[in-house]
Amino acid sequence: MTHSVNFSNNKLCEQPITVKESKEPQQHELTIQRLISTNEQLKVQNRMQKEFVNIAAHEIRTPIQPILGLTEALRSKMKDTEQLQVIDAVIRNAKRL
Length: 97
Description:
By secondary structure, the chain is mainly alpha-helical. It has one domain (2-96). It contains 2 helices and 2 strands, in the order E-E-H-H. It has a two-stranded antiparallel sheet. Helix 1 packs antiparallel against helix 2. It is rod-shaped, with a radius of gyration of 26 Å.
């Protein structure tokens, strides 16, 4: 006899996990509990990872804004084509962040 434990509503696991029932019901129940526990740990880790990425992105964007503003102001005063190309590269790369 097999049982399917479906964690597919959580995007951490796209496919249902099939567990073959062992001869010992206690072992089978322990396996299911381990799967459930592991799934909960993955959910927590996924939330922590998303939070970290959001914080890191914010911390990178925050100091870039004043640099971008000053660079654009500097660009408006430049006449040299070579310097304009360098400033344009800085502005373009800052906007990508």
